[in-house]
Specification:
about 350 residues, alpha/beta, Aspartate Aminotransferase, domain 1, Aspartate Aminotransferase, domain 2, 14 helices, about 40% helix, about 15% strand
Length: about 350
């Protein structure tokens, strides 16, 4: 899906005659804090390196990742965001079918269809109730037949549902004839790696993790993400990889960001506190009802007579982007999604919503 994602600030800025930095973007689920200290200086200090080709296989980033996770660099494959491998895996592995639980990120099924794979959509499980996690795992196990590729987003976009890594790993081990792709782009917002990710556990050979620099560090414009798996599976994926898929400045950033644990802690602390504050303020908006979730982004039901299209359209007229969730298959009703920004920006959103409530 080329269009229909969040974060399209350039389109709205062009339409309103604004600088892109003047658009308040609540539609993109990235870190609400400024860049990690030192990142801009590090990029500026390596600017001359764009005169040369980047490392063909991003070896420096892979070595940095290996150090962080005490793993071999051969277990990592770096690409232009997790999108690189969401679209690459169905094409490279050629599975008999691709299993996609609903609702979730639409690129999983789009990538499978583009590769000519049969797509089996299961669910939907539209809420984020932890009591339902066992039913989801049972549904995934029932569909993970021989030669299938199973996508799962943990925590899930757009619902914010999170399944404990140990519970997910148990099902993956049971269904060893399927290849499992667990997208952990938002896992760093939940907790430290040892409590939120499969990467610190004993990963089985049929598992690929997708991890993102874009979200937790707030750098989606750099286009940097990576896949993690067994050396054999990563080597198989590497045969279908594009050379020079990552720009030199993104590689420089990746090596630097692998060491920013303290920044990640600060993002989680801020999101925990600010989400609680924002939810209290949202309670004053009569036409919005938050759906419980465990992430820094919030799914909101839009009550009649408002529609998601009405609301997003009027907010866009004020230079504010929120995510209309109409194109998430498996979600019923009128829903929008917002992600945290600074306290000042979050208050500006609340004031804009309150003005709409008095219309």
């Amino acid at each position: 899906m080329l269009h229909g994602h969040g974060g399209d600030v350039y389109r709205l800025a062009r339409r309103l005659g604004l600088d892109p930095g003047e658009v308040l973007d609540f539609s993109s689920n990235v870190s609400p804090l400024p860049f990690p200290p030192g990142l801009k200086a590090r990029l500026a200090g390596h600017m001359d390196e764009i005169r040369c080709l980047p490392e063909v296989d991003s070896l420096g980033v892979r070595i940095a990742l290996g150090r962080r996770y005490t793993m071999s660099h051969d277990q990592f494959l770096v690409g232009g965001g997790t999108t690189e491998w969401i679209y690459g895996l169905p094409r490279i592995l050629r599975p008999g079918k691709v299993v996609v639980p609903l609702p979730t990120y639409s690129d999983y099924s789009d990538a499978a269809s583009l590769a000519g794979c049969r797509v089996e959509m299961i669910g939907p499980w539209p809420g984020a109730d932890p009591q339902e996690n066992a039913r989801i795992l049972e549904g995934l196990a029932g569909s993970a037949s021989d030669d299938s590729l199973v996508f799962y987003c943990n925590p899930n976009n757009p619902t914010g549902r999170f399944i404990q890594p140990e519970a997910l790993l148990a099902v993956i081990r049971e269904c060893q004839t399927a290849t499992w792709v667990v997208d952990e782009s938002y896992a760093p917002f939940i907790d430290r790696d040892e409590r939120s990710s499969l990467i610190t556990l004993d990963m089985p050979p049929n598992l690929v993790l997708l991890r993102s620099f874009s979200k937790i560090y707030g750098v989606p414009g750099l286009r940097l993400g990576y896949a993690v798996g067994s050396s054999d599976l990563i080597a198989r994926m590497a045969k279908g990889a594009r050379p020079w898929a990552v720009s030199r400045l993104a590689q420089v950033a990746g090596e630097f960001l692998c060491r920013q644990d303290a920044y990640e802690d600060e993002v989680r602390r801020y999101c925990r506190e600010e989400k609680g504050r924002l939810l209290k303020r949202l309670a004053s908006i009569p036409f919005l009802e938050p759906v419980p979730g465990q992430t820094h982004f919030i799914l909101l039901k839009v009550r009649s007579p408002w529609t998601a299209a009405d609301l997003t359209g009027l907010l866009e007229g004020q230079g504010i982007l929120v995510r209309n969730c109409a194109n998430f298959v498996g979600l019923e009703g009128e829903l929008i999604r917002i992600s945290l920004r600074s306290m000042q920006d979050n208050d500006r959103l609340i004031e804009a919503l309150r003005r709409l409530a008095t219309r």
